[in-house]
Write a structure and sequence with these properties.
490 residues; alpha+beta; Nucleotidyltransferase, domain 5; eight-stranded mixed β-barrel; 20% helix; 28% strand; globular
Length: 490
């Protein structure tokens, strides 16, 4: 998995959710009949289970706490064999029925409520804007009961074009959808999957707005048009079916393990430049599960031994990384290279950085962004220096200026001295205000930082602390100076 700065920058410029496009119009001809059957079943179930506290009845679903089971009434859209399928299960008010396998008569938020009712809590959805690149949640087995009472895993309904095989049978993660502002009333908060397309109950790709999603890294752009309907399980149009949701492991409250890795500076007796290996060996590590330290010795080797022995068949491991204030930026850069190797479905899924910390990929910047002439967008640039223990810097604002008959813009570059953190915050706010008044597109909330590998992490964070609330995407160049500022033409 490679998360480049270009990707993150583009994500900051796009709307988080698709605007509502209107309800799908071409429902199966049996749709009204199916709706009537769902309403009839709903009324009957309300009466049947009115005194049973272990049963939750909502329109289109029944949840059983004792059995840890949720049954949802769904309708087949009738996608033909080998047709492209972009959505597994969507809500009735989605506009994407033409490319979905199933339409549920329960709302996404109702399914969310039902999964909580049977004892499971949502995790967290994939959200690059918050630096969450792994969907997080307990896996659920999703089984479709067909017309002939055959039970088929939802993964078996879809074929991956790249592999020619059905989807990996790993279940779907209960991440839950984000709660966001309503499109019609900014004061009102809504369950995103209820109001914003695609209004998915079960998603084939990673998303911020679905109840459940695939348990592996699958951004929409990576998997678009790669899923087709399995010819062995083609469904008749308009069939009223039952989709069963059950925890993949009913014997545990969760299969998620949250680990912490705290990295501190060790004692080094030399002032000579350190090799990468020497840097790592000089650091002190504590790998924790809660308050329990897992590594016997505070060195890298002992830490990696523990990580290698983790039971990945039973648990999903998520790691939160803490950089100590006294490690150098050079240390952070080398450590980030090690972490990037671990950051995988089969290794450790790296969590978004906690408050006051940078994401580890901040120290693995995309070097193509050093070329101002080739950038698609222009983030802030910040060159930092340390003198007598004090950090100060120069902030660089780059604006493209388009002139007649030129196919490329000229770059207008402004240098702004920032002696203290308040100066940095002031300049960021001033540019945001100027942009808003001019009704121009806001500058990406990204800062490229250029600093010495000898600078301490804590000093960098102290200088950035007032900027981080609005500019959390930071890329730190420790081995490359800021590109030179061209002299102005006389």
């Amino acid at each position: 998995m490679r998360i480049c700065l270009t990707t993150v920058l583009m994500m900051t410029a796009l709307p988080l959710f698709a605007q509502e496009e209107g309800t799908f119009k071409n429902f199966p001809k049996q749709h009204e009949t199916n709706k009537a059957a769902v309403t009839k079943a709903y009324k009957a179930n309300l009466k049947k289970y009115k005194n049973d506290s272990n049963i939750l009845v909502l329109r289109g679903l029944v949840a059983d706490k004792k059995k840890q089971r949720v049954e949802v009434m769904v309708e087949s859209t009738g996608l033909a064999s080998e047709s492209s399928c972009e959505f597994l299960v969507i809500g009735e008010t989605s506009s994407h029925g033409y490319e979905a396998l199933l339409i549920a008569f329960a709302k996404p938020s109702d399914l969310h409520q039902a999964l909580k009712f049977i004892g499971k809590e949502p995790g967290a959805p994939y959200d690059p804007s918050s630096l969450r690149f792994w969907a997080k949640g307990d896996p659920f087995t999703c089984t479709l009961v067909t017309d002939n009472k055959e039970q088929v895993l939802l993964e078996q309904m879809i074929v991956d074009k790249d592999t020619g095989k059905t989807l990996p049978e790993k279940g779907f993660l209960f991440t839950g959808s984000q709660t966001v502002e309503s499109m019609n009333d900014p004061v009102k908060k809504v369950y995103a999957a209820d109001e914003y397309d695609p209004k998915a109950l079960v998603s084939l790709f990673n998303t911020t707005a679905a109840v459940l999603q695939v348990p592996y890294w699958a951004p929409q752009g990576e998997v678009y048009e790669k899923s087709t309907v399995n010819p062995e399980h083609e469904l008749p149009e308009g069939a009223l079916l039952t989709l069963i949701f059950e925890p993949s492991d009913k014997n545990t409250s969760t299969n998620i393990k949250n680990l912490k890795l705290e990295v501190q500076a060790g004692s080094s007796a030399t002032n000579d430049p350190l090799t990468d290996i020497a840097r790592l060996n000089a650091l002190q590590f504590q790998l924790k599960d809660g308050d329990t330290v897992l590594n016997r010795k505070p060195d890298l080797k002992s830490t990696l031994t523990v990580i290698d022995s983790l039971d990945r068949q039973k648990y999903q491991y998520f790691l939160t990384l803490y950089f100590g204030a006294n490690i150098t930026l050079g240390d952070a850069h080398v450590l980030a290279m090690i972490i990037s190797v671990m950051d995988s479905e089969k290794g450790l899924r790296i969590e978004p950085p906690p408050a006051g910390q940078l994401f580890y990929k901040s120290f693995l910047p995309d070097k193509s962004f050093m070329n101002r002439e080739e950038r698609i967008v222009h983030p802030w640039e910040l060159s930092l220096v340390e003198k007598d223990g004090n950090v100060s810097g120069t902030l660089v604002l780059v604006n493209p200026v388009w002139k007649d008959d030129n196919w490329k813009p000229e770059l207008e570059i402004t240098e702004l001295p920032v002696a203290i953190p308040k100066d940095l915050r002031r300049e960021l706010d001033a540019e945001a205000e100027r942009t808003a008044k001019a009704e121009k597109m806001a500058k990406p909330a990204v800062i490229l930082v250029f600093a010495s590998p000898a600078m301490k992490y804590g000093k960098l964070m102290k200088f950035l602390e007032l900027a981080l609330p609005t500019h959390k995407i930071i890329h730190v160049f420790v081995n490359d100076p800021m590109p030179p500022i061209p002299k102005k033409k006389s």
